Fold:
Amino acid sequence: MSMTSNQLNKKDIERLVSQINTSISYEKPGETTKTKISKHWNNFSQIYVSNVKQDFIVCDDCKTILIYKSSTGSGCMINHLRSCPSKLKHDNSSGEQQKINNYFNKNSNDNKQIPKSIKRAITTSCAEFVAEDSRAFKLLQGPGFIRLAQQLFDSGQRLSSSIPIDIENLLPAPTTVSNFYCVC
Structure:
């Protein structure tokens, strides 16, 4: 068993479950005065091994084991419930057609989802940027870089899409930047 501070990996947990090992137990989290539990816990139980809480939960309906950390919230539960075989069978037992809302997230941020192809292109460009210019990857998280990237993006949105844009014409020369900020 691979253990790091009494935490098991998913394969170890699955093996213990399949062996019906007596060291494994399941519990529903309790609400405290400081924390409120998600309604999604009605469908899941926290996994414990030898009374040590693991970073895994189990779906009470289909017995699927999911990775769960309280710091990341109930997102894995919500995603699983959308596709849980037991839930889908139960929900659709009336023979009614499922509503489209069952397949799409209702969050307001959904309209701001970035297509994977664009994310991939940006990630590639960022990797090439830090490699070519011998910069640290951490530079991409700096507030100055983020402001620059946001300004370039905003400027691109304001410019007509029919006009080809040469980014070199948008970027100032290094002396222009130093003269702008140098008050000698």
Observations:
- The mean pLDDT is 78.
